[in-house]
Amino acid sequence: MPYFDYKNFIPKSVAWFVAALLILLPLFTRNSITLSIFISSGVWAIAVMGFTLILRTGQFSMGQAAFMALGAYATAIFTLQSGIPFWPGFLLAGIVSGIIALLIGLVVLRVGGIYFSIITLALAEIIRIIAERWESVTHGVRGLRPPLPPTISLGGLEINFATSAIPYYYFMIILVVITGIVFWRLEHSRIGGTFSSMAANQILAEHQGIHLMKYRVIAFTVAGIFAGYAGAYYASFLSIITPQMFGLWQSIQIMMMSIVGGISSIVSGALIGATILYTLSIYLSRLPIYNIQYLLFGAAVVLVLLFLPKGTGLVDLWGKFWRKVFREPEEYEIPEDSEMATE
């Protein structure tokens, strides 16, 4: 009789059940607030995946929101001022964001550590200031209002983005799935292994013949492309783009979501961190305490760093929970001064 691995089957079944519930969510509720929370969580999860990918190369980017802004403004300018239809304009937004990320990466990735973080932080502020001051193109603080996606006809079914948030919800599901597949494939490929070795020890990786600059640029460019798509989608969903939507706090928020969710899994950690923190921020913003969400965001990061092992987050509690359920012993090291170690 073949062996049935129920210890892997049950956790995977639960995860697939949760995924199915999310896909079928509009069948259970059409509440616009609930759908909007999940839509926005998916948008930020895409940006967090890119941040985590860059972090895997040993670099700490503080300007991922800048590439969301580039994608958002690109799709609005293409559709409003250049007359390009929405879907080609949307596709071009990610390409433009990726090309700019490539050009910037070829310059700024030559430096590392804290200097790279400072440069990306300055880059985000530069893009925000340009968006504020270049009023003839961006309309400054008044913002741009990108057009809605056109109605899609599939046989007898019409998908109208103007009448409900449900089409946006499924658009987000498709975008997150495509992004997740790309980042999952990268994580489990030879390139992903190279990223991990670079983060572990860059000097050793370089001595082994790994071209650090090449792989840093790859990660930075891929992250820029999908951040651009996230920004373009978010602007279309909100029907407005302003410089304040993608500022310093949004870049910090992406970093916090990555840390809380966990960097051990690019896709799952990003989804968990983005969903929990964004949902928390929505409900905390209703409290009569000014900027309470900023304080509790920071508290969440501190708690994760204090009480979870280094480099882990909430996503790692999933495996630990099932080990407790099946009563599997935790791995531990025998202290050097114990009697067992001296035998």
How far apart, in Å, are the first and last alpha carbons? 41 Å
Number of strands: 2
**Residues in helix, %:** over 70%
Number of helices: 16
| Largest pleated sheet | 2 strands, antiparallel
The side-by-side strand order for the widest beta sheet comes to: 1-2
CATH T-level fold name: ABC transporter involved in vitamin B12 uptake, BtuC
Uncertain segments are 332-343
**Approximate shape:** globular
> How many discrete structural domains?
1
Query: Rounded to an integer, what's the Rg over CA atoms?
Result: 22 Å
Shape-level CATH architecture: Orthogonal Bundle
* Mean pLDDT across residues: 84
- The sequence of SSEs as H and E is HHHHHHHEEHHHHHHHHH
- The level 1 CATH classification is Mainly Alpha
Structure class: mainly alpha
Task: Walk me through what this model shows.
It is built from 16 helices and 2 strands. It is mainly alpha-helical. The protein has one domain (30-342): ABC transporter involved in vitamin B12 uptake, BtuC, CATH 1.10.3470. It has a two-stranded antiparallel ribbon. Helix 12 (248-261) packs parallel to helix 14. It is globular and about 55 Å long. 38% of the residues are buried.
